[in-house]
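Tutorial, part two.
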Amino acid sequence: MKKLIAVLSILALFAVAGGAGAQDKAPEKAVAEAKAAEPAKADAKKEEAKPAAKAEEKKEEAKPAPVPNKGDVAWMLTSTALVLMMSVPALALFYGGMVRAKNMLSMLMQVFVVFSLVTVLWCIYGYSLAFTEGNAYFGGFDRLFLKGTFDAAKGTFENAATFSKGVVIPELVFVAFQATFAAITCCLILGAFAERAKFSAVLVFIVLWFTFSYAPIAHMVWFWMGPDAYTDPKLVDALNAKAGLLWQWGALDFAGGTVVHINAGIAGLVGAYLVGKRIGYGKEAMPAHNLPLTMVGAALLWVGWFGFNAGSALEANGSAALAFMNTFLATACAVLSWTLGEAIFKGKPTMLGAASGAVAGLVAITPAAGNVGIAGAFVIGTAAGLVCLWGVSGLKKLLGADDSLDVFGVHAVGGI
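Running the prediction step on this input gives:
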């Protein structure tokens, strides 16, 4: 009996020991299984993360297109109207008062009709030649008759880039703004051979000059692919190669010193040589017949020029504010310096001189309006008044051309 009890006790001990060993192994087994499951869980998390990442990428791809800012659009529409006012009535009155009384209606008619003619040509093919991708000299034909700027069926507008990434304005606003530049440039030339050119010949000349001079120069100086195209440093050279020739060379023309004023001034000088001098030029006096009209025209030009220069920022921002202030200040400096120059070199200042000084200051600050500081406006305006005074007197005599209303002396010399 004692032996049986001893055997049973030993068996019981083995059973307890075996159970304890099994309990010890169970946690170990569980840990091992958990460790084995961890990579699988991690893989599952990665798989779950992939669709999320793809969704984020799709969100970025589906980022909405930039929407024009109402303030920018309002400013550009206002600027366009101001530049239109620079031609009709401002330039027409400025030129009309400077010619002899018998030629005033002729001058007003030429400015009015040429402005209208160039506006139509701009919308037919001029804008496309100047502001679409082509080669270094001319644009293409993608925007003939303004094709693609507005979808009448969908009621959608194409946008044009400004100078800031992600900032756009409706392309039609840009078209209208630039149309006023093209039109006034052609009107400026008229003053060089005023009082002696046949009306029909003037119109034919304007069509040819606009097509083969203004449009290509505008493309060469102002056309580039826009800031939004520069998404990668590797693309810079290829994008620059698509820009206009003078833009590639680094030309800085904020609002038209080269495209408008130098271009028109040189064309005017060549036109004056080709047409010849007025009958009686140099033998009889040909004074301005109505200086009050010229003064009114100059004052309206000054006001309209804020749209010309500050509007060229294409946005209602600090650059526009700088261009506005520089235009304001440089013009005032030029009026004073021209008036002082006349008093010193000619014995007395004149109203015609003050009005011409204002235009000289406006011309000179145009290419730099948004690129120089306030000190630059003081210097440029003061220098313009004196240099352009020499341009319409000493230089004019050296050239020997009958530049009736001093287009070259003010616009080309001031622009340069």
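The chain has 14 helices and four strands. In part three we will examine how such features are distributed along the chain.
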